[in-house]
Write a structure and sequence with these properties.
Layout lengths: L3 H22 L2 H7 L11 H21 L5 H23 L3 H25 L1 H5 L2 H20 L1
């Protein structure tokens, strides 16, 4: 049986983190257009679509874990990765601290990897839903490193 209120809360929390990141990042689409980009860089329109899908997958993953064998540690790591995800646009876009943004991205990747490991204990499907996020973070790292090296 689906616990609708919990599911909605689990979906809204990462979407709110994404909105916070977008607000902290400022005019990200306009800035992205100005940055020198490495090969295989997508158009700016791709990012809000992909991030929305990733945040929804995070929410479903969280829901599955919370209705499974969840732990306080997994919930703490989940919160940390959401905070890191929301802060990253501030570093990269608003402040243009590309080197620090790469450090933040590495920390975010480590947090999501740990989250996936911890989520596996609560819900295998919940852990698997984090794999696209990890792959996207690797791609984002490539893009950020490209902007950093070309700037």
């Amino acid at each position: 049986m689906i616990r609708l209120k919990l599911l909605l809360r689990c979906l809204l929390i990462p979407l709110a983190a994404g909105l916070a990141g977008s607000l902290l990042g400022g005019g990200m689409r306009a800035l992205y257009a100005l940055y020198p980009k490495p090969p295989f860089s997508p158009p700016g329109l791709v990012f809000p679509i992909v991030w929305t899908a990733l945040y929804l997958a995070m929410g479903v993953s969280d829901y599955l874990c919370r209705t499974g064998a969840d732990t306080p540690l997994r919930r703490q790591v989940y919160s940390v990765q959401l905070a890191l995800s929301a802060l990253w646009p501030l570093l990269f876009f608003r402040l243009s601290w590309f080197g620090w943004a790469l450090v933040g991205l590495a920390a975010l990747f480590a947090a999501v990897l740990l989250l996936a490991i911890l989520s596996r204990r609560a819900s295998r499907a919940g852990a698997l839903l984090l794999l696209p996020y990890l792959l996207w973070l690797l791609y984002a790292g490539y893009l950020a490193a490209g902007v950093f090296s070309l700037s």
